[in-house]
Structures are given as structure tokens and as C-alpha cells.
Amino acid sequence: MQKIIVFTDLHILPEGETIIGLDPSARFAQGLAHALHHHPDAARIVITGDLTHHGKGAEYARLRALLADCPLPVSLMLGNHDRRAPFAAAFPGTPRTGDGFIQQIQDLDHARLILLDTLDEQAPDLHSGYLCPSRLTWLADALAGAQGRATVVFTHHPAFRTGFGGMDRIGLRNSDALIDTLHTHGPVAQIVSGHIHRTMQGAAGGIPNAVFKSPCHQMPLILGDQSPHLSVDEPGAYGLLLIGPDGVVVHTEDFDLPRTEARTYS
């Protein structure tokens, strides 16, 4: 089986700035070190958007420095807190479509990874996501070329309603169009997303959709019509996908819990 390490919602800030007293850069550095120590055999790292908090050049420069010595290939995606022009200036080698969207395909032994760009820089609410016809057409072609591999689709915004009313209002506005495309041109084994800052598992039109926590701040488990800006200092996490000929297994790891020693019980 091949491993994919998944981070999401880094929210990198300029030096000296914090979110609810937490330093996003320090938290991501800690999580990245943990992941590389425990999973050096991973095939790739995927970071599913909200790379920065304000989409500023200085923030992308800090992220570039954090990734400079990473021994694994890293695929970067955009979320609602990102901006394409500053990102492209900092990471000019990132694959993009002919229309300038940050979308890419990565083929593994048993799987095709399809990374989508759900950022809508003109969103009326500033933070909801959207997949325009150009991005959906690109997705259809990417799905058609999977050639029997298990397909894993990555989005920043999940494609299902989560029960967090505030977050659902800034979700993927045309998730139905995404699901229709996946069903028409699939099959798709797994969708992987971020955005919510909470570990959860749902289904988008019957397709499993895993969501991972941030390495920094988390959404408290307060369901209903709450503010999408609620945040709590809970352990940071990353995801781990195990992909083999039988499909996809999804794990999540809270990396800053107190260290414990595994023991055998009888």
C-alpha cells in the first residue's frame, strides 16, 4: 500500500501574529516533523488549502521556507483564505490548468489523485467555494483518464452538509454539480477535504468524503447555526491515506498529544 500524508488549513501568518494565541507556523512545523518521522515512506504530502490566513505574499514566503527541506514531494491546493496571484508568485512551479486554476493529477501505482481548486475569489460571502464549468470539464477529463486506478478527489470545501450551520453556509455552493460529474465519469473511491477544522466522515452522493482537522486551531463541536469563526485550542492533526489494490483506508493522527508508550495488555 502507498501512503499519502494530508494536511489542511495551515493558516500561515506573518511572523509574530497568532490565531487564538496559537502560532500557525510553529504548529505546522511540529505536525510536519511528526509526519515525516513516523511516515518517511509516504509517497506524497497533499495540503488541501487555506495555506495562509490572508493570502499575502509574506505568508506564502513563510510557507515556502517551512517546506524548503521537506524530503517528500508536496502538492499544494487553494482554499477560501488563499489568493491565486500571490500564491503563483511564491510557488510558480505548481501545476495549473490552461485557465489558471490550481488543479493537478498525481498518478500512483494503484490510484489517481485529482486535486481541485474550489476557491472563488468573487464569492459574495467571501469564503464559500465554487467549481466553474471549466474546472468541472477538466475534472471529467481527469476522471476519464484514470484507467482502472482507484480515484481519490481532493477539495478544500467538502461536498456534504456537516451540521455546522455557519460552515455549511460557506460550503461548496454547487456541490451537486461536483457529485454529478463524479458519478458520470467515475467511479471515485474517496473524496478528501478540509475547511471545517474538524475530523469527520460524511458522504457526497454516496461517495465517502473525509474531512481532517487543522494543525492549528479547530472548530468546537457545537452543532447548529453557530459562527464559522468559532475556534478552540485542541490537538492539531493530519490525515493519512493508505491506498492499495483493494481501495483507500483513511486515518487521522493528533500529533501534539502527550507522549505515551505503547504497552501490551493481557
Provide key terms for this protein.
266 residues, 11 strands, six-stranded mixed beta sheet, hydrolase, Purple Acid Phosphatase, chain A, domain 2, single chain, alpha/beta, Calcineurin-like_PHP
CATH topology: Purple Acid Phosphatase, chain A, domain 2
Domain unit count: 1
Low-confidence spans: none
Number of helices: 6
Q: Give the C-alpha Rg.
A: 17 Å
Strand sequence of the main sheet, in spatial order? 4-5-6-7-9-8
Q: Which superfamily, in CATH terms, is the homologous superfamily?
A: Metallo-dependent phosphatases
The pLDDT mean sits at 96
Percentage of residues assigned to helices: 10-25%
How would a crystallographer describe the biggest sheet?
6 strands, mixed
Briefly note the structural class of the backbone.
Answer: alpha/beta
N- to C-terminal distance: 30 Å
CATH class categorisation: Alpha Beta
Task: Indicate the overall shape.
Answer: globular
- The percentage of residues in β strands lies in 15-25%
Instruction: Give the strand tally.
Output: 11
Would you identify the CATH architecture?
4-Layer Sandwich
Query: What is the H-and-E element order?
Result: EHEHEHEEHEHHEEEEE
Protein name: 3',5'-cyclic AMP phosphodiesterase CpdA
Domain Calcineurin-like phosphoesterase: 3-198
Family: Belongs to the cyclic nucleotide phosphodiesterase class-III family.
Keywords: Hydrolase, Iron, Metal-binding
